[in-house]
Amino acid sequence: MDLIFDVQVLPHRRSVVLPEPVLASIAGYYRRATTTSRPMSLLIAVVMAILLAALAFHAFDGADPGWLTALFSALAGAPVLLALLRTVPNAVALGARTGSPAEQTRLARAICRDHLLCLTSMSTFLVLWVVTAA
Asked: What is the DSSP letter of 84?
């Protein structure tokens, strides 16, 4: 869902600062998603925790080789860790519209990169999970 707003930065890759309507759109979304939608915004954290708990249970089950379990854990765990340490704090800051337009542009671009990386990682996880389950 976030990528719907994040991709607005892509046509402006060569711009030092994103146009104000783009910043306003992205920042407005992240203000709603991270701040004003509580407690619903916590649902994402709960889903991430459930995924990690399910992976831990799967690891203790021992049905897959250790290397595959480690790969699943890395593919799912890295995006969760990235969200916790960087993406969410950046989204909160962008949603608050603190900092200069250049700083807000940096935050918007970093969030977009993070989400594209997470999409790649989680898509790979899903494909591998489905293939190995079959």
From this structure: I
Q: Under 8 Å CB-to-CB from 105, ≥6 apart: which residues?
A: 9, 15, 16, 17, 18, 23
Domain that holds residue 128: 2-9+17-133
Cα(27)–Cα(125) distance, integer angstroms: 29
**Counting Cβ atoms within 10 Å, is residue 125 exposed (0-12), middle (13-18) or buried (19+)?**
buried
Global pTM reads: 0.89
Q: pLDDT digits over 63-99, tens only?
A: 788 889 899 999 999 999 999 999 999 999 999 998 9
For residue 70, give Cα distances in angstroms to 19, 87, 97, 122, 133. Answer: 42, 23, 39, 14, 16
